[in-house]
Model the fold of this input.
Amino acid sequence: MTQERRLRIALIVVGVGLATGVYPLINLWQAGFRWQPAQPEYEQMIAVIMAVLGIFLIQASRDPFNHLSLIWFTVWSSLAHALVMAVHAVMDPNEWVHLVGDVPALMIVAAVLTMVTPRRLPPPTRASRSTRRDG
Done:
């Protein structure tokens, strides 16, 4: 399997997970994904931002090498979000369960995308060179 194919699959899986999974997880496993006191407005805002990001990742899967900045934004923003949540979870003993809920979920997203995303573009093939000159 090529690097591009692995990246496309990862983008689709992560994208679908973000687009459809965040809000249900908040409601299905409240201890691991709902911060107390419950704030429905906050949860809806986070869920919609994650859903939009997921949709854009799915779209990026069609041509991932032209969407590397979006992919790396997803990696670094997921790590930053997980770090902030981990700090808050450690500081508040009532929220420690997040260290096995949403914190690792975001770290897994970042790790998977990091493993399959190239640090730089692969060298162009003959077909892509002729397309670039013609287009």
Notes: The CA atoms of residues 75 and 111 lie 8 Å apart. Helices lie at 3-28, 30-33, 40-60, 68-91, 102-116, 126-134. The chain is about 75% helix and 0% strand.
